[in-house]
Write a structure and sequence with these properties.
Elements lengths: L4 E6 L10 E5 L9 H10 L1 H8 L9 E5 L7 E5 L10 H18 L4 E4 L11 H15 L8 E6 L2 H10 L3
Parallel strand pairs: 1-6, 2-4, 2-5, 5-6
Antiparallel strand pairs: 3-4
Bound molecules: ligand AR6.
The site of ligand AR6 has 23 residues, from α1.
Length: 170
């Protein structure tokens, strides 16, 4: 059992060199897409899509782990978030993403993990609600983790960072 610290920063999920695992807001086929998936695959190089082919497809709420290829991290954890208003119950499926990603990182003995705001882009999940789900799952899961000590939430814009800060009560 560790004391998990949660921090939030504004930045690019593909540029978090001091973090063991970054999380991808993936599509079911784990192929490069727009947004987070585009940024991660282009920074990781074609080897990531190659490895991901064997891990796909995944279901909403599921997470799988791969190598990081040309990224400066140790692993990428790919989560398929719910499409808001379509994959129900959205809040539980989103919570599953965070819970499953934390478990995979912990099982791998990793100490740090960075999340983007899963589902809040193309998949349409309202950001404030999504960040509240993220923070409550991380706080709930924290005491049960053996290795993960640091969780970073990466907001893409200044406005998104404000939402993360308010969900964290900062
Ligand atoms: N770093 C951090 N956050 C980012 C970045 C980045 N480089 N780029 C975008 N965001 P999205 P989803 C923010 O659409 O909603 C893809 O095409 C963005 O502003 O990447 O889970 C996949 O292939 C938003 O707040 O993920 C899937 O088909 C959040 O990250 C689908 O989109 C998530 O946006 C997944 O949709």
């Amino acid at each position: 059992m560790t004391d998990v610290s949660i921090e939030c920063v504004q930045g690019d999920i593909a540029n978090q060199p001091d973090i063991d695992a970054i999380v991808n807001a993936a599509n079911a086929r784990l192929m490069p897409g727009s947004g987070v998936a585009g940024a991660i695959h282009s920074a990781a190089g074609p080897g990531l899509a190659e490895e991901c082919r064997k891990l796909a497809p995944i279901e909403p709420g599921q997470a799988v782990i791969s190598g990081a290829h040309d990224l400066p991290n140790r692993h990428v954890i790919h989560c398929l978030g719910p499409v808001y208003g379509e994959d129900e119950p959205s809040d539980q499926l989103l919570a599953d993403c965070y819970r499953n990603a934390l478990s995979l990182a912990d099982a791998e003995g990793l100490e740090s993990i960075a999340f983007p705001a899963i589902s809040t882009g193309v998949f349409g999940y309202p950001l404030e609600e999504a960040t509240r789900v993220a923070v409550s799952v991380i706080r709930e899961a924290g005491p049960g983790l053996a290795h993960v000590q640091r969780v970073r939430l990466v907001a893409f814009s200044e406005k998104d960072l404000e939402a993360f800060r308010s969900a964290l009560g900062q």
